[in-house]
Amino acid sequence: MIVFDDVVKRYPDGTVAVDHLSLTVPEGTLTVFVGPSGCGKTTSLRMINRMIDPTAGTITLGGVDVMTRDANQLRRGIGYVIQHAGLFPHRRVVDNVATVPRLLGVSRKQARTRAYELLERVGLTAEHGNRYPSQLSGGQQQRVGVARALAADPPVLLMDEPFSAVDPVVRKDLQTELLRLQGELHKTVVLVTHDIDEAITLGDRVAVMRPGGTLAQYSTPDELLTNPADDFVADFLGLDRGVRLLSFFPSNGVPLRTDNVAADGDSVPPDDDWILITDENRRPLGWLNGPVATGERASETQGLISFGHTFTPGSDSLRAALDSAVLSPAGYAVAVDGDGRVLGVVSQESLAAHIRLSHGHARSVRPGTATAP
Ligand SMILES: Nc1ncnc2c1ncn2[C@@H]1O[C@H](COP(=O)(O)OP(=O)(O)OP(=O)(O)O)[C@@H](O)[C@H]1O
């Protein structure tokens, strides 16, 4: 557990970077510090591993004031990942990862074996390990940065804008990878970003900081989206926070129709505008708009319209279901099971009603939000 207690950082030129910050990062969770440029995120992060010392207040790690710890020894228990990975360019990737274990006295052979294991863990191969950093893509270098930070198996991981230097697709991959790793490793992670979407995707808890280094709000992502503390937080979250909130609601329980789903070649009800045609294994083929003669295969005679992307109740969110319905030419989202077989379809209108119900339920169970608009 990391505890900031009334922490202030004033730089020698008088700039107050962090202003009376108090918050607790629970053990084994991922906390994100987010906010506009210059609001004190990096300064706060670096005070944890004593790269910067606070002017006032205390930071404790596992109950011990970090200022009472030897800085080098403290840092051995704290992995640190930065933007652009910060790898040693003249050392092979595997030796970059093995650096800290070597410093800690692990034999070269053992350190390399562990480094190859870690590279695999972050989605790289031994072949990547044998290259130099410049021979890897930016995203791969970031993965090496994560592997290197994990090499000494530290209980705490600090990540400063770790994915900012890569393109959005790679960034999404790296975020997914981090969540998967965290699901296995349960480190106490503090991650700095200026990207609120990244914060909401990754954080168990999110600390929104405002210019001047004060804490605007510290809560779970769904609480943040439901109940922003003030206009600054609401503006920072952006206009579509209602839709983003749907990411936190499961899609199981949405009312599915099956009466307008038919296997190719089966007779279809005559009075429904849109019929979803499936193959014999109930995998979707496309939408049929209009009548089809009995015995004919709609897929051969009618030209089916793409069903777009599907969603899986239980594993996908209400946001995914709504997206599927909005993008569907028929106005219906197609629900499939884990094997891609059609479970049914749900219209935009039914989803809207279900979303209203889900929101109502969320409000009624969340303390202090019963009167929220
Ligand atoms: N060494 C320093 N001396 C004086 N002021 C500094 C120093 N380092 C940072 N600052 C100032 O402290 C404030 C907080 O900086 P910090 O880097 O912590 O912000 P940040 O939220 O991480 O910003 P960014 O998202 O742009 O990286 C800024 O106003 C910055 O200019």
UniProtKB/TrEMBL annotation:
Q: List UniProt keywords, sorted A-Z.
A: ATP-binding, Nucleotide-binding, Transport
Pfam families (UniProt xref):
ABC_tran
Instruction: List each copy of the ABC transporter domain by range.
Output: 2-237
Q: Which domain of life is it from?
A: Bacteria
Q: Give the Enzyme Commission number.
A: 7.6.2.9
Record has Hydrolase as a keyword: no
The protein's matches in InterPro entries, at most eight in alphabetical order, are given as: AAA+_ATPase, ABC_transporter-like_ATP-bd, ABC_transporter-like_CS, P-loop_NTPase
GO terms (molecular function) for this protein are:
ABC-type quaternary ammonium compound transporting activity; ATP binding; ATP hydrolysis activity
Q: Which family does it belong to?
A: Belongs to the ABC transporter superfamily.
This protein is called what? Answer: ABC-type quaternary amine transporter
Q: Please give the organism.
A: Hoyosella rhizosphaerae
